[in-house]
């Protein structure tokens, strides 16, 4: 069951939607308002033919561009190419890649609410997901219709692209609504969405020895657990101890006395939903480590793609700087005169 955002259709939307049907228009653009509380109408594109034309899609693209929202999500209802009395429509979730993670999640979790509101009045034959502005074209529309009407399977490249889109949408829809507040414009707001397992809490609290390394991962049960622990003899051994090539990972490295490094690795082959999940919780976990529960001095934050990109020399330089500071002569502050 998909998560719900709690955002509802406004009276203005319902009124405008009936106007869209009465006009026999070709396209209806719908947005969520700036306060993120209501689904509102944006624009109706009437069209001049009995079917969608190149001009209709040009008008749609021009509308989004001139309104400055081509990089923002939107819902779009398109009338199918038929002249029958029983009209049918396609629901388009337009979620451009450049949209913020927060808006992607909000639109994904509001989609089912909107569909329930509208499906009673119209016949929706399909629902598609578009991430590229250029895909809002007649040529792409014809390709979609052709694939829907044909039994010919998609090509391997098309299947791969569709899988990426489905993975991202699946993650967005399945996320719990209370996590929406934890995600801002592409990064975490600083609150960890998941609980640390008791084992993870114990390991983090006990990481007192220099060279200690704790690797952490997010589970399917929405907890942060320990995936492995190690004691690194030297910085050069770090790569072999945190190498986990299949998915993202957090690593906590005690690289110098009372100094910790937080390493976030996100391999190039990681799934989209895992990339988003780890990226949106990174800052929250760092703040948890620095907070009153653990009180760790995390003074170095490193983010890499493949773990082979990690430069271990930066830990050596930081350690040398730390040692130099600690070896400086310290002078006691003169005491004030004794009270009589």
Automatic annotation (TrEMBL):
<comment type="subunit">
    <text>Interacts with G-actin; ADP-actin form.</text>
</comment>
<keyword id="KW-0677">Repeat</keyword>
<dbReference type="InterPro" id="IPR028458">
    <property type="entry name" value="Twinfilin"/>
</dbReference>
<dbReference type="GO" id="GO:0051016">
    <property type="term" value="P:barbed-end actin filament capping"/>
</dbReference>
<keyword id="KW-0963">Cytoplasm</keyword>
<dbReference type="InterPro" id="IPR029006">
    <property type="entry name" value="ADF-H/Gelsolin-like_dom_sf"/>
</dbReference>
<feature type="domain" description="ADF-H">
    <location>
        <begin position="5"/>
        <end position="146"/>
    </location>
</feature>
<keyword id="KW-0206">Cytoskeleton</keyword>
<protein>
    <recommendedName>
        <fullName>ADF-H domain-containing protein</fullName>
    </recommendedName>
</protein>
<dbReference type="GO" id="GO:0051015">
    <property type="term" value="F:actin filament binding"/>
</dbReference>
<feature type="domain" description="ADF-H">
    <location>
        <begin position="189"/>
        <end position="320"/>
    </location>
</feature>
<dbReference type="GO" id="GO:0005737">
    <property type="term" value="C:cytoplasm"/>
</dbReference>
<dbReference type="GO" id="GO:0003785">
    <property type="term" value="F:actin monomer binding"/>
</dbReference>
<dbReference type="Pfam" id="PF00241">
    <property type="entry name" value="Cofilin_ADF"/>
</dbReference>
<feature type="compositionally biased region" description="Basic residues">
    <location>
        <begin position="330"/>
        <end position="340"/>
    </location>
</feature>
<dbReference type="GO" id="GO:0030042">
    <property type="term" value="P:actin filament depolymerization"/>
</dbReference>
<comment type="similarity">
    <text>Belongs to the actin-binding proteins ADF family. Twinfilin subfamily.</text>
</comment>
<feature type="region of interest" description="Disordered">
    <location>
        <begin position="318"/>
        <end position="340"/>
    </location>
</feature>
<dbReference type="GO" id="GO:0005884">
    <property type="term" value="C:actin filament"/>
</dbReference>
<dbReference type="InterPro" id="IPR002108">
    <property type="entry name" value="ADF-H"/>
</dbReference>
<keyword id="KW-0009">Actin-binding</keyword>
């Amino acid at each position: 069951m998909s998560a719900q955002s709690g955002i509802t259709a406004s009276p203005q939307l319902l009124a405008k939607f009936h106007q869209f049907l009465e006009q026999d228009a070709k396209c209806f653009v719908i947005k969520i308002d700036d306060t993120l509380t209501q689904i509102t109408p944006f624009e109706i594109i009437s069209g001049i033919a009995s079917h969608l034309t190149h001009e209709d899609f040009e008008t749609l693209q021009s509308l989004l561009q001139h309104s400055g929202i081509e990089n923002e999500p939107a819902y779009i209802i398109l009338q199918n190419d038929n002249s029958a009395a029983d009209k049918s429509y396609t629901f388009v979730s337009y979620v451009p890649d450049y949209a913020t993670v927060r808006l992607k999640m909000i639109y994904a979790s509001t989609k089912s609410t909107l569909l329930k509101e509208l499906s009673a009045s119209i016949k929706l034959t399909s629902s598609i997901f578009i991430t590229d502005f250029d895909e809002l074209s007649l040529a792409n529309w014809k390709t979609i219709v052709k694939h829907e009407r044909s039994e010919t399977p998609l090509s391997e490249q098309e299947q791969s692209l569709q899988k990426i889109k489905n993975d991202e949408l699946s993650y967005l829809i399945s996320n719990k609504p209370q996590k929406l507040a934890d995600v801002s414009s592409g990064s975490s707001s600083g609150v960890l969405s998941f609980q640390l397992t008791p084992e993870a809490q114990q390991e983090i609290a006990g990481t007192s020895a220099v060279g200690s390394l704790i690797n952490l991962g997010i589970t399917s049960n929405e907890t942060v657990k320990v995936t492995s622990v190690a004691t690194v003899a030297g910085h050069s051994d770090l790569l072999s101890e945190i190498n986990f090539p299949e998915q993202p990972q957090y690593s906590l490295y005690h690289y110098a006395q009372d100094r910790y490094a937080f390493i976030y690795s996100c391999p190039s082959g990681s799934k989209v939903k895992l990339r988003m999940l780890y990226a949106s919780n990174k800052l929250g976990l760092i703040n948890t480590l620095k907070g009153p529960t653990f009180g760790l001095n995390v003074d170095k934050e490193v983010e890499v793609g493949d773990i082979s990109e990690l430069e271990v020399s930066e830990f050596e330089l930081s350690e040398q700087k730390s040692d130099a500071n600690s070896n400086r002569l310290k002078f006691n502050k003169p005491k004030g005169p004794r009270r009589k």
